[in-house]
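Help wanted!
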Amino acid sequence: MSTTKKIAGAALAAALGVTTLSACGGGDAKDKTAGTSDAPKSKTVTLVSHDSFNVTEAVLKEFEQQSGYTVKVLKSGDAGAALNQEILTKGSPRGDVFFGVDNTLLSRALDNGIFTPYEAKGLADVKPEYVLDQEHRVTPVDSGDICVNYDKAYFADKKIAPPQTLDDLVKPEYKNLLVVENAATSSPGLGFMLASVGKYGEEGWKDYWSKLKANGVEVVDGWEQAYNERFSGSAGGKKAKGDRPLVVSYASSPPVEVLYGEPQPAEAPTGVSTGTCFRQVEFAGLLKGAKNEEGGKALVDFLISKKFQEDMPLQMFVNPVTKDAALPELFTKHGVVVDKPENVTPEAIAKNREQWVKAWTALVVK
Amino acid sequence: MDRARREVSGTKEPGAASHDAAPVPGPGRTPGQGESGRATAVRLALMAVPLAFFGLFFAYPVTAIVGRGLKTDTGWQFDRFGEVLARPDIADVLWFTTWQALASTVLTLLIALPGAYVFARLEFPGKELLRAVVTVPFVLPTVVVGTAFLALLGRGGLLDEQAGIRLDTTVWAILLAHVFFNYAVIVRTVGGLWAQLDPRQEEAARVLGAGRFAAWRRVTLPALAPAVAAASLMVFLFTFSSFGVVLILGGPAYSTLEVEVYRQTAQLLDLSTAAVLTMVQFAAIGAILALHAWTVRRRESALRLVDPGRTTHRPRGWAQRTLLGAVLLTIGLLIVAPLAVLVERSFDTPGGYGLGFYRALQDAGAGGGTFLVPPLEAIWNSLQYALAATAIALVVGGLAAAALTRRGGRFVRGFDAMLMLPLGVSAVTVGFGFLITLDEPPLDLRTSWILVPLAQALVGVPFVVRTMLPVLRAVDGRLREAAAVLGASPLRAWREVDLPLVRRALLIAAGFAFAVSLGEFGATVFIARPDQPTLPVAVARLLGRAGELNYGQAMALSTILMLVCAVSLLVLERLRPDKTSGEF
Amino acid sequence: MTLLQLEGVSVRFGERAVVDSVDLAVAEHEIVCVLGPSGSGKSTLLRVVAGLQQVSAGRVLLDGADQAAVPVHRRGVGLMFQDHQLFPHRDVGANVSFGLRMRGGGRGPGRGSHPARVAELLELVGLPGAQGRAVASLSGGEQQRVALARALAPSPRLLMLDEPLGQLDRGLRERLVVELRGLFSRLGTTVLAVTHDQGEAFALADRVVVMRDGRIAQAGTPLEVWQRPASEFVARFLGFENVVPATVTGAAAATVWGRVPVPAGSPEGEQRLLIRPAGVVLGEAGLRCEVVSRTFRGTHVALLLRPEGGPVLEAECGLAGAPAVGDRVAVAFTPAEVVVLPPGDR
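Answered by r_m:
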């Protein structure tokens, strides 16, 4: 491999001579990030994550000032793609810390051994139910619930109570009202399927979906289509004349609807069926072969610091995992507390995921 | 022997038609004896950069990722092929992928060829603008297009309200969306050549007694054939590897190879299945390219090209006026209407029509989060990436086209085909391939911004080659000879003769490459990059969140993306210099 | 002083020799015309000299220097293409100045456009002030003139013309030939032209080279070639049809047309005989013929006669007293207009 790369490297000299020459018009702004490898390496710490990672700049700045590190954030694709890229580059990672592996993918990450164990400072503050890996290869950072959302206006109009549980959804009064995402390609789709597995067990969940199907569940490919096109409670859905008042989304969606309402409504236009939820927990871990291990450790500590945990809800619309982190008013006022999310262990998910998805596809899509 | 005879007949005698275009050997070429050493050397030198580019940024990464999937400690696992291909669901995917691509290509040709004629030959107000408009779909992210198309074809859409027909989750929606996306490919590739065909040839056929259609079929169509074939091939490759359109408009019941490769790679990390599917994709594309080469090889001929400005005229007679009307109507319904829906939604704020969402975009950066970027910054990022990608694609594609201008043996045709392969390979395959290959100095580009334009250029190069090659090959070789005799070195002759003649094609190619990278989403998203969101990435982020403001801003940003694209294309078309000045 | 020298030049396309062991020399300031029918290899010869065509054998020397390793653009020769090959994307002025720019190397705006020289050349070819015109707007004759001006502009040491007047109507052609000849002798240009039109060649050239199937059939001054065609091929190519087999004995030859007097010193035995039409004289006695057709040729009348025996005979007579079609006439032959050709070569 290495000799090939050297030959390739020599050949690149010729090719790149042209490409960089032609490309230099494109790039001064970007060079500051590309060129950081020249700086003393201990000064830069790199976080690799998926596209949804966000943090308030001021919060990040504060960490940089306190720790003396410069943080570089690399985003690459959705959660699955980002993790798989880390697995492929195992041993020669692109960064020092990876954030964004959730409980549905945790076993794959751990089995592939991409993380170095590190017990983060402040782990004691994290709610123990989220600490799924006792070797501390990963540290929980946030949690979020995938739940059915409902269009409040629709149910008020029809004078029907919105459904609250998975059992409710197969009732005749909710016929032809629910739109869900493809479990094969969409993360909330998978989460909702897993909720049914958690609730009805490995035997019973298929029956439940047969009933759901008989009750007119619609499947679309992704969250964007489901929520923005088909769901009658969203802005996009209203414009697109979406006619499904029930959609699989997140427990945090109603607060987001308020935050990004124009103007902000006094009350969220959508609600959450709290008995239909699957809880996603996202973890971060120190990458094996990290160039800046010390910096990486500091970064993991930062991710469960109070500052970051309290910043997170309004940046990524997830819940903190630490006990002392206060939720913003938006969440306390418009959000819901999901007491009893359905649960499936990472091990069981890893073992059965593909087979479940196939069975689900055969049952619901075809 | 055959070639020798043809070239002998090419040495002109007065009895021969003065402008017939029998191929004549280029400088330094010995007919009937293959290429001279010098010509081969020149060709190889021209090919060096494209070969290195494709080797490093395509062949090597893709081979590596396929190898990772199929090779274990015990050797290659070729039995995986049997296992994967025997699965009925995979067979379904293969069948659907193929037939929808074929159907989409045929439909696009049928709908867009009249458009190509109208844009090439007729003069009408707003033509330049409309030409840019039909190209806009090409650069829009599929998420946005899906939204627009659903508004037209889906529940409560225009068609539903007017005729009670819903086409979403049917194959028709997929096919029509493919036409929407690829209309410009036909109009630009075929129309570019059509505009430069000498109309007098068709007139000559008419004088000789051919009817209007017969003259078109016997004179113009054969001359256009290479461009039509090239454009059809591109449309086929695009639709064969269709991803977003199939997901959004077809619903989960339809799946293409590309979708499967993405799932297996990005989600399941089942690299061996992905490798098998990638190989199948390769085989299919290889077969298509071979078919294409076979049909085109003997049909390209030197054409008499004229200044496109002289071939256009105002529509004459009812037939041309009807045609113009029909084309404008088609464009209106199929392309402008979906785009108009986006624009309409970007202004449709809860308090009535207004600029609310655009104003919100302006405040976006102020919140301090890294989620939203000020739209100006996203535009700037997009333009930077697109410019870099266009420059790379023009250099690589231009050199490749120059090397391919003179037809050659199997090796040369293979090179030609190789340039097309990236169109049929998933961005995720390439992106993941980059990860495991470009990871050691001096090639550790995994976290460099240049990787994004490099990946985008992979898709841009085939456009440049396909657009330029028919025109380059149509340039009469004796013009180069005339320049050579007048003292121009081969390079200078290329610059003085070929380049001005193909400048229009070059601009079209540049426009395409630019537009493709401007709207490129797959590679931009999969390739790890420092956080410099482009417009499509920003749109996708906004659409990925609940909330009225986010949705409205996504529409507003999509509208801006459309505008940026249309303006860029218009500027490119305007770059054409004054025709009478001999200099450039 | 020999400017161009071809030594045993051959060009083969596969099995076929398009140019076959051609030796040819062109002296400085000389105008040489290669004359031949389609496919005789004459255009290929020009391409060889220009370097556009590689030779299979032989050498091309310019000013005594072998040109094998010299690429086209450094040979310093001019070539005016048969169909002009004007650059369609440039105007007349830019076409004419092209070669000047290539040699001068000027690149920047304004530089290398050589307005004075362009104006002078356009004046020379009779298109003053045409600089700004688009190439596509030119008539065939005008294109030809521009092509000539373009070829002349860099003052090539050797100017080659491929069917220079091929596309022009007769009147224009005849006038231009005279103009060209005057122009070339004034400029002292060395010219190698190819044409299929013997009238053009004879009017233009100091020396004529007749080619057939890639070989030189005859070379000489126009007068020599005209008067003494070296073979029946050359004779027929020059337009002479009165060729018959003959047995020469002494001062006369026996033919199907009867006894024909031959010039003194002609080779004896089985030969072929050319009688130029001017040598077929109407008279009271001789071979009896019927007039098949007659054509006015301005200064004389061309007659086609059917003799009692043998093939038809071409003759010329004065305008006055020309017989009518159907008339019966008798003809005699003048030895000065009779040429004995080598036998067997057709």
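OP: Thanks! One thing I noticed: The first helix of chain B runs from residue 2 to 10.
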